């Protein structure tokens, strides 16, 4: 008599466990089933495309939701399902999904991950499914960021220059400087900094430690026509006159006292300039958004200029470009549908992206598309925004990609700079040490000849 009761009990337990596991498999907003990249159809017969993007802010989320809803309503064959992932969980979630084979069909990816992801088959080329004209619409330097062996593995959404010169016009006037004329050479930057340094106000804020030098100096290295490693990654190329000139300039600026010995904040924070602790600050274009959102009453007192160069020629790289793209997962069962959505959103109607740059980023980020820039130039707000115009025309077209070589290479340069600035080491000796560090890395990691772009 006990066996039927026991059997009924076990069946009940199994049913509960089954229900719990089913509930954990994931549901969408209204309890609708959320398909992984391998699933094909939802209950209405539409092909489901899962799309992940990191959380940037409320305005970004609203833009994504509005446009994905519009796409879903524009046709009856595909349903794009959006998941906005908290920024601090993004890397962990995407790496875990890749390992488990559960990545979404579409995901955002930054530029410096594109080439290796393409080489490893983690993402698919879009060319087979897209109009060739959309690639011609990209600025040539940015198109190269997403290209491997003649194929395009992502479509760029935005670009962010790592370095722009921001300055306080009121402090310029107090120092007897023309508030409409920023320094254009390295020598002028130091000269201006000395005139602007007064009391507790420093002349300039910029990167202030090795980790920041490692990435903020990519643009400066391109400015002098060098990088720390050869194109084929077979040897260090850091001991040369242009690199010596760059290290010497940075050390001269530091020793002159125009920059604080202890940084007043992280490189990405414009607060030191906004609160009058410094008169000039080198920061990324994202600072425009910070200024417009947090310091609206200060905007008339802010000047924006191209970062000064070694020789005053500003038709050369002064920044590296970071930014985001949309990619198709290498295991997606629906690459055609995914590519069509990406083309519709990022490469179709220019007004979609115009709204993004105007309303969401406040012109703190920049388009990779020539046609979008043309529309922005005719737009009342875009045409009358001098900061957007200057950066779009004088910084972005000359900017370089963030390098894809190992971070250890960048840190060898950065620690060489620190040895000169903080320890007083001879420039030549500091660079020779960096040269050995890079060559040791190449040897120990069989790194020579592994650049997928060469």
Secondary structure layout plus pairing:
Layout (H helix, E strand, L loop, with lengths): L1 H23 L22 E8 L3 H17 L3 E8 L4 H11 L5 E5 L3 H6 L13 H4 L3 H6 L1 E2 L2 E2 L2 E2 L3 E2 L2 E5 H6 L11 H11 L5 E4 L4 H7 L1 H6 L17 H15 L15 H4 L3 E6 L3 H8 L7 E4 L14 E3 L1 E5 L6 H12 L3 H11 L9 H9 L1 H4 L2 H9 L5 E2 L5 H17 L3 H18 L10
Parallel strand pairs: 1-2, 1-3, 9-10, 12-14
Antiparallel strand pairs: 3-13, 4-5, 6-13, 7-12, 8-10, 8-11
How would you explain this protein's 3D organization?
The chain is α/β, with parallel strands linked by helices. The protein folds into two domains: 47-160 and 320-384, 3-Layer(aba) Sandwich (D-Maltodextrin-Binding Protein, domain 2), CATH 3.40.190; 164-318 and 404-445, Periplasmic binding protein-like II (D-Maltodextrin-Binding Protein, domain 2, 3-Layer(aba) Sandwich), CATH 3.40.190. It has helices at residues 2-24, 58-74, 90-100, 114-119, 133-136, 140-145, 169-174, 186-196, 210-216, 218-223, 241-255, 271-274, 287-294, 335-346, 350-360, 370-378, 380-383, 386-394, 407-423, 427-444; strands at 47-54, 78-85, 106-110, 147-148, 151-152, 155-156, 160-161, 164-168, 202-205, 278-283, 302-305, 320-322, 324-328, 400-401. A five-stranded mixed beta sheet has the order 2-1-3-13-6, with helices on one face. The protein has a four-stranded mixed beta sheet with strand order 9-10-8-11. The chain has a three-stranded mixed beta sheet with strand order 7-12-14. Strand 1 (47-54), helix 2 (58-74) and strand 2 form a beta-alpha-beta unit. Helix 9 packs across helix 19 (407-423) and helix 11 (241-255) packs across helix 19. It is globular and about 70 Å long. Residues 417-444 form a coiled coil. This is ABC transporter substrate-binding protein.
